[in-house]
Amino acid sequence: MNFQSVEFEAAAGRADQLKKSDLPEVVFAGKSNVGKSSLINKLVSRKALARVSATPGKTATINFFRLPACRLVDLPGYGYAKVSQNEKQRWAKLMQGYFDDDRRIALVVQILDMRHEPTADDFDMINFLIERELPFLVVCTKCDKLNKTQFAAQENYFASLFDEHGIEFIPYSSQTGFGLETLKQRIENAVLG
Ligand code: GTP
Ligand code: MG
């Protein structure tokens, strides 16, 4: 699948600004600052297509990026404590608007930080994906920050969480490209069938 010819298409800050769902969509979800935008950039081999920041809450809109065969959808991160109550409500409405819109979701890439246990918000999100019967896999990012021993320990930990539920997880790094080919393969299978 062509991951190179990509362009920014639209940003939606409110549900009524959402683009029509006329193409399969690959959706990137995860808590604030986990590395969603970095992963999208890596996938499409671009440095700054999606805005990356060391400050959490960088992506405040749902951003759509167009590839020939599908759309990549960068969701605003959840779980950032310093966001105002108003902003949290806007976020919840926007996400609800997106997922209630009967969209052609080919795959949700749920991103976790490989160094840490998933948060309560992460588990809520995963349970939501299961309840809605949405196709998804987990990407455990920032694996470059783990040494060999830590990597093996975290891999076992995530396997203990997910294997029995048949949930696939992919250790990954936007820094080194570890896991990138596997992820591309999964996306291609989901989009092209
Ligand atoms: P929001 O838009 O705020 O929800 O954040 P995000 O999930 O889009 O995260 P973003 O891609 O902006 O990355 C957040 C920070 O983590 C940045 O400083 C990135 O450089 C860093 N980062 C992302 N992925 C990796 C990775 O695989 N390894 C390392 N070492 N750092 C990473
Ligand atoms: Mg982002």
UniProtKB/TrEMBL annotation:
Q: Which cofactor does it need?
A: Mg(2+)
- SUPFAM superfamilies, A to Z: P-loop containing nucleoside triphosphate hydrolases
Question: In its keyword annotation, does this UniProt entry include Metal-binding?
Answer: yes
Keyword GTP-binding set for record = yes
Q: Which InterPro entries match?
A: G_ENGB_dom (IPR030393), GTP-bd (IPR006073), GTP-bd_ribosome_bio_YsxC (IPR019987), P-loop_NTPase (IPR027417)
**Which keywords does the record carry?**
Cell cycle, Cell division, GTP-binding, Magnesium, Metal-binding, Nucleotide-binding, Septation
According to the UniProt entry, where is the signal peptide? none
Cite the EngB-type G domain residue spans from the record. Answer: 22-193
Output the PROSITE patterns linked to this UniProt entry: G_ENGB
Which PANTHER family did the record assign?
ENGB-TYPE G DOMAIN-CONTAINING PROTEIN, MSS1/TRME-RELATED GTP-BINDING PROTEIN
Family assignment?
Belongs to the TRAFAC class TrmE-Era-EngA-EngB-Septin-like GTPase superfamily. EngB GTPase family.
Give the protein's biological function. Necessary for normal cell division and for the maintenance of normal septation.
Q: Which NCBIfam families match?
A: GTPase_YsxC
Q: What is this protein called?
A: Probable GTP-binding protein EngB
Name the encoding gene, please. engB
